[in-house]
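User: For a benchmark we're assembling, each entry needs the component sequences followed by a predicted structure for the full assembly. Here are entry 17's components. Please fill in the structure.
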Amino acid sequence: MNNPFQSISSQQLQEIRQQMLKFAMLQLRNADLAEDVVQEALTKAYQHAESFKGASAFKTWFFAILKNQIIDLLKYHNRTKNLSELCDEEEDANAFFDETGHWNNQNFEPQEWQGVQSQTYKKAFWLVFEACLDHLPAQQARVFMMRSYFEMNAEEICAECDLSTSNLHVLLYRARLQLQACLSKNWFAGEQHD
Amino acid sequence: MINCQKASRLISASYEQPLSLLQRAQLSFHLAICKRCRSFANNSDQLEQLMQQFTQQREGE
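Assistant: Structure for entry 17:
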């Protein structure tokens, strides 16, 4: 039998746990909930250790379990939580445009990112990337991660979050604007990162 | 003739569903004359890729 928990060190396990926590925080925006869901995922992983085939990387397997736990939690949350609480209206995207619908240069003027692929080798880049995800307003972050990370389709996301398709599109649009502005400002803005 | 706000909305929407013929025409006309929106469109593509890499990083290694 191939028990994955025997093949990794407690330090590795600790590292994975930290990563899972960070990831869960990004989704749930609540330290207690994140702590709980990671704990549940780990427990589940222990219980189902025999289902680990060794074909997938240990971490991949772990995250698959965590993903399912979070999806369940989000479903439960969205059913029970007061909708207005969940869908707190965020600052509008209009700050990016002036009254004539042109880019408002004071806030953000899109300039083409240069040499993106070479940045991805740098650890610091991903720290900034993650910080930008962290700074998204909660509702935007949630739908953006559901779509990009959990690879849920639009119908599923709308159903889970009780959103219309056009609401969903507006949220994703705002998330893209915010992320692009954040990365532009904090990474790509003319500085050389060597 | 659409403005930048509308154009950027269409760029984002194009990741969710195919644009109509009219929307595509409006967008490509706007992009032809607007450097900032071209940049926004290119960066949006990059962002999609970065997001995929971010996901893979998280899961793999």
